[in-house]
């Protein structure tokens, strides 16, 4: 799938040196453009509303207003804008609250620059970028939540039973099982010998049928329904 000509990015971080360094790195990419920089969560909300960026890259721990609260307000006030957390925080409350409020990705600051670029691009393909350590934690927590009913109510929006409406196709179920294993659209396409675009269409259709918003909620649905992982034919 061809990337947009330019992805417009608002960067929010309270550490000027780090923020400027990331802005310079991102700005060197021909398809990524920094349209603004914010130094706290409240400023990020105001700038997102004014600039209407494609993506807000948002730190968690910031003064005036933290990043988790900023996610909630940005998603309410600028719903077309996608929000990706970029933080040192591995705190589960931060992670799951950010997801519950509508964050499209959660990245740790130990990423290599190339990984950051690719993950920003992936969110524009409606994927849910997660740092590997975070992805493992999310899937482990979802499995525990699915078997114990726990997780402290963090991920509340995934339905506990399949809603009325069109049933999922066998291919949609197969793809959701792989989504729940943390695979990207590209990896799923390679596994099933279909195109990345076909995978994207199946994921979109399944989310629409289940009234879910993102891949993390889809993974929660798979776990709660006991759909299990797809067995490896090899």
Q: What descriptors fit this protein?
A:
single chain; 234 residues; Rossmann fold; Arc Repressor Mutant, subunit A; 2 domains; five-stranded parallel β-sheet; 12% strand; disordered C terminus
Number of domains: 2
Would you state the CATH class of the largest domain?
Alpha Beta
β content, as a range? 5-15%
Query: Which structural class is indicated by helix and strand composition?
Result: alpha/beta
How would you sum up the global shape?
A: globular
Q: Give the terminus-to-terminus CA distance.
A: 29 Å
Sheet of most strands:
5 strands, parallel
CATH topology descriptor of the largest domain: Rossmann fold
Helix content: 40-55%
Assembly state (oligomeric) = single chain
CATH level-four homologous superfamily name of the largest domain: Response regulator
SSE succession: EHEHEHEHEHHHHHH
Uncertain runs? 145-165, 230-234
CATH architecture of the largest domain: 3-Layer(aba) Sandwich
Total of DSSP H or I helical runs spanning 4+ residues: 10
For the largest beta sheet, what order do the strands appear in spatially? 2-1-3-4-5
- Give the integer mean of the pLDDT values: 80
Radius of gyration: 18 Å
How would you summarize this macromolecular structure in one to three sentences?
With 234 residues, the chain is an alpha/beta fold.
Describe the structure.
By secondary structure, this protein is of the alpha/beta class. It has two domains: 7-125, 3-Layer(aba) Sandwich (Rossmann fold), CATH 3.40.50.2300; 136-224, Arc Repressor Mutant, subunit A, CATH 1.10.10.10. The chain contains ten helices and five strands; from the N terminus they run E-H-E-H-E-H-E-H-E-H-H-H-H-H-H. The protein has helices at 16-27, 41-51, 67-77, 92-100, 113-123, 132-148, 170-180, 185-192, 196-210, 215-224; strands at 7-12, 32-38, 55-58, 82-87, 105-108. It has a five-stranded parallel beta sheet, with helices on both faces. Helix 4 links the parallel strand 4 and strand 5. Helix 6 (132-148) runs parallel beside helix 10 and helix 8 packs across helix 9. The longest helix has 17 residues, at 132-148. It is globular, with a radius of gyration of 18 Å.
């Amino acid at each position: 799938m061809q990337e947009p000509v330019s992805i417009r990015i608002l960067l929010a971080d309270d550490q000027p040196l780090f923020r400027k360094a990331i802005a310079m790195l991102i700005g060197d990419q021909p398809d990524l453009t920094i349209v603004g920089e914010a130094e706290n969560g409240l400023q990020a909300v105001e700038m997102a509303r004014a600039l209407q960026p494609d993506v807000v890259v948002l730190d968690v721990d910031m003064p005036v207003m933290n990043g988790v609260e900023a996610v909630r307000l940005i998603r309410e006030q600028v719903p077309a804008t996608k929000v990706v957390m970029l933080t040192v925080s591995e705190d589960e409350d931060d992670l799951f609250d950010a997801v519950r409020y509508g964050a499209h990705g959660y990245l740790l600051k130990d990423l290599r620059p190339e990984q950051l670029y690719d993950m920003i691009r992936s969110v524009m393909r409606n994927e849910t970028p997660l740092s590997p350590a975070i992805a493992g934690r999310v899937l482990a927590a979802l499995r525990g939540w699915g078997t114990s009913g726990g997780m402290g109510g963090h991920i509340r929006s995934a339905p506990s039973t399949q809603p009325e409406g069109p049933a999922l196709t066998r291919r949609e179920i197969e793809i959701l099982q792989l989504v729940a294993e943390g695979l990207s659209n590209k990896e799923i396409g390679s596994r099933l010998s279909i195109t990345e675009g076909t995978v994207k269409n199946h994921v979109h259709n399944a989310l629409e049928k289940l009234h879910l918003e993102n891949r993390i909620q889809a993974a929660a649905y798979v776990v709660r329904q006991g759909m299990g992982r797809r067995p490896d034919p090899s």
